[in-house]
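Ticket #171: bound-state structure for zinc ion.
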Amino acid sequence: MNRLTAASYVAELTDGFVGEGEPNQGIFALLLSTLHLLAAGETEMAMRAFEARLIGLAGFKPELNACSGCGEPLTETKIRFSANLGGLLCQACASAENKITVFNRGTLEVLKTLYRWKLTKLHQLKVPEILRQELSALLRAYIEYNLEKRLKTTEFLDRLYKSSPGRGTNI
Ligand SMILES: [Zn+2]
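RESOLUTION: The complex was predicted; output attached.
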């Protein structure tokens, strides 16, 4: 992905998570720092960190330590993501779900690092190709789940306000 494509992607994703007229200083600062990293030629991990932190700053920070079903700590060597619940599940809880994606535990550890490390340190993070692919897929799953929820709500509110009496100029 070239820098311009990456820059438009982060701008568009921000737009999806932040509605018009909703001030969010944290997200603005994240966007600026990410654009600086992209300008400096760092793309992949900068984008993944951007995605992870944007979700968090928008109020949807994923639970990465405990099962979203039963709350037990996630200790298994495989990580299971439920598309229906939008979270990670232990093996027992995952067996009751039908849309499950399985990831390596290392991918989860990289994701935690993206939340912990300073953005400017991320170029020091060495991530094997398979984990990079999984990380991208896992973040995408979180984004789709939360964006779908968010945009549905927005649509709902838009419809609600449009249909409410007493609005507009023809009163
Ligand atoms: Zn569980």
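RESOLUTION NOTES: The two ends are 51 Å apart (CA to CA).
TICKET STATUS: resolved
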